[in-house]
Specification:
This protein is α+β, with helices and mostly antiparallel strands. Helix content is about 45%, strand content about 10%. Bound molecules: S-adenosylmethionine.
């Protein structure tokens, strides 16, 4: 503003400097459009993507936006087109204008239903007649596409923004999914809404392009039952990483909220995970290729140890039973190699998995056959049966427990690496399974044996350590595990009190530990809306935290030891 030395920096973007508050205030109107924690970048490999405009701390909200389009999921029985609740034939009410069934007159008047209502009146000429409730209905397969097409006339600025999004039309050509859409979406729309073709000149390619945009940029929104789908504008530019640095949540009104999960340096891409980060490398990469049309080369995929976690590795099967090595693919970026995909015999000829410590190697095909067998065993496992889970963990991971197994397994050399994704899957289920019997969570935990309680604690701690390293942006999973751990600490402390009588020092230590766990829950889940299970856990954690503070206060007043 004045050319004087400027020591004060804009806290929003960190890129503008001022001599003082006064000139910063005067400049705000001009600076505001440029002041954002994110900016757009582009590369030949990734297309457009967002980067941090300045150094960002963990937990900063970088994006919050309402959807460009939202719609029911493609495969669904008839649902209300405003609230997405499943409809029953006896209670559904046809919209008086267009005939689409809705749950109430209020929902029929809801602006969310306007796009298809208008298109049905203007481009079809007669009302819809949906029957056959209770089974997936083909008419809903086209709804997201129809709502996108409705933007053309009604909201041309949004339509233009939608068309700027990636559709991968070329890569989708002749894929089974596109062939299915050609029949189930394109032909349906052109037949049911003929004036779209005859008057508006909408072509098959136009519709397929919209299908591509929905496939590449769509998010599943868990706020309704069944979950619906939505496409966002700016958030669509977030690139993918299997170790994402941003976490996404949805607000009650359907806004997408993106915040950093770890500190992010200025210029670094902001990333979310497009696939299931709890799958192994080969399966994640295969899924990304099939659904988003790129082979991921992120830091996690490129590192065969998956950041030191050995998440996809096997233990060394060589003659030396003490070899501490892990068997991993020679080239983790080789295409294919998920246990569920490909022909093990064909893949096996081309690639090898190698021990990290000795010269043992295995053809990829043999590794995949082994893994496929474990995968089949896992798919048959009843995860509600704690004993069956423990046997699985002992059989394939060599896990030892602070409790006896009823069915003793002969101890063999474990086949899977300590953190292998199959073992992690079962440990996650078991950590939550412990304590679910009984009327409520409190009763459930009280019914656990000391050994089971200790095992639950060990599982939560191990899983949290792994998640922090491998998937820091999995806020929901981490938050729920911290909540489980807090419950274990509370129960353990109650048992200690019963066994050993009141001990203010031990009580203070365990209250402080519980407070630490609950603070983590609140921090991780603070963007979760109250209607989701995680939002309910957040509410409970906040209540428990308040009670804890009161307890710590009471303890301080009674014996003067607790920090306040
Ligand atoms: C939701 S869009 C992201 C925005 C897109 N880059 C654009 O220019 O519109 C997803 C697409 O971006 C590209 N992409 C995202 N993350 C990537 C990554 N880590 N490596 C390579 N391509 C990536 C892929 O083409 C993917 O299908």
């Amino acid at each position: 503003m004045c050319g004087c030395p400027a020591g004060q920096r804009c806290a929003g973007c960190g890129a503008a400097y001022y001599c003082g508050k006064e000139h910063q205030k005067l400049h705000w109107k001009q600076h505001k459009p440029a002041c954002s924690p994110i900016k757009e970048s582009r590369s030949p490999e990734m297309g457009r993507f967002l980067v941090a405009a300045r150094n960002l701390a963990a937990g900063e909200v970088v994006l919050r936006e309402t959807p460009l389009v939202e719609a029911p999921p493609p495969s669904t029985p008839p649902v209300c087109l405003a609230c997405y609740r499943t409809l029953a034939e006896a209670t559904a009410k046809d919209c008086p204008r267009c005939g689409w069934p809705m749950c109430s007159a209020e929902c029929a008047d809801n602006p969310k239903h306007r796009p298809e209502c208008r298109l049905t009146v203007q481009k079809r000429g007669n009302k819809m007649n949906i029957r056959n409730f209770g089974l997936p209905h083909p008419s809903y397969q086209c709804m997201a596409t129809l709502r996108c097409l409705a933007l053309r006339d009604a909201q041309p600025a949004k339509w233009r923004r939608l068309l700027e999004l990636e559709s991968h039309c070329e890569e989708r050509r002749d894929t089974p999914r596109q062939e299915q859409e050609r029949f189930g979406v394109v032909q349906f729309i052109l037949r049911v809404f003929p004036k779209l073709r005859d008057e508006d000149k909408v072509t098959e390619d136009d519709i397929l392009r919209v299908c591509g945009i929905l496939q590449v940029n769509g998010h599943e929104v868990p706020l309704s039952e069944p979950p619906h789908v939505a496409v966002y504008d700016r958030s669509s530019l977030l690139a993918h990483s299997c170790r994402a640095n941003c976490a996404k949540s949805f607000s009650s009104s359907g806004e997408l909220v993106v915040r950093t999960a770890v500190p992010v340096q200025a210029g670094e891409p902001l990333t979310i995970c497009y696939t299931d980060p709890m799958w192994g490398t080969a399966a994640r990469r295969q899924h990304l290729q099939e659904t988003k049309f790129f082979w991921c080369r992120c830091e996690r995929c490129s590192d065969r140890t998956e950041l030191g976690t050995y998440f996809s590795a096997l233990t060394c099967p060589g003659e030396n039973p003490d070899c501490p090595g892990a068997i991993m693919p020679d080239d983790p970026l080789a295409e294919g190699g998920a246990p569920e995909d490909g022909d093990p015999d064909v893949l096996g000829a081309a690639q090898y998995w190698q021990c990290s410590q000795c010269d043992i190697s295995m053809p990829t095909g043999s590794v995949l056959s082994l893994l496929r067998r474990v995968g089949e065993d896992l798919s048959e496992l009843d995860k509600d049966d704690a004993e069956a889970c423990r046997i699985f963990l002992q059989r394939y991971g060599g896990d030892e427990f602070p409790l006896d197994l009823k069915e003793k397994e002969e101890m063999r050399r474990p086949m899977l690496s300590r953190n292998h994704f199959y073992l992690t899957d079962v440990r996650l289920a078991l950590a939550q399974r412990y304590g679910q019997d009984g009327g409520d969570a409190l009763q459930g935990l009280r019914q656990l044996t000391d050994g089971e309680l200790a095992h639950k604690r060990q599982l939560c701690r191990d899983l949290l350590k792994l998640a922090e390293r491998l998937v820091p942006a999995e806020h929901r999973m981490r938050g729920l595990l911290w909540f489980e751990l807090h419950a274990v600490e509370a129960e353990a402390s109650r048992r200690r009190g019963l066994d050993q009588g009141p001990d203010p020092d031990a009580l203070r230590v365990s209250l402080l530990e519980s407070r630490r766990c609950l603070s983590e829950v609140v921090n991780l889940l603070r963007c979760e809306p109250p209607e989701l299970p995680e939002g309910k856990v957040l509410r409970q954690a906040r209540l428990n935290l308040q009670e804890l503070e009161q307890l710590l206060c009471a303890l301080h007043n009674a014996v003067g030891v607790a920090p306040l």
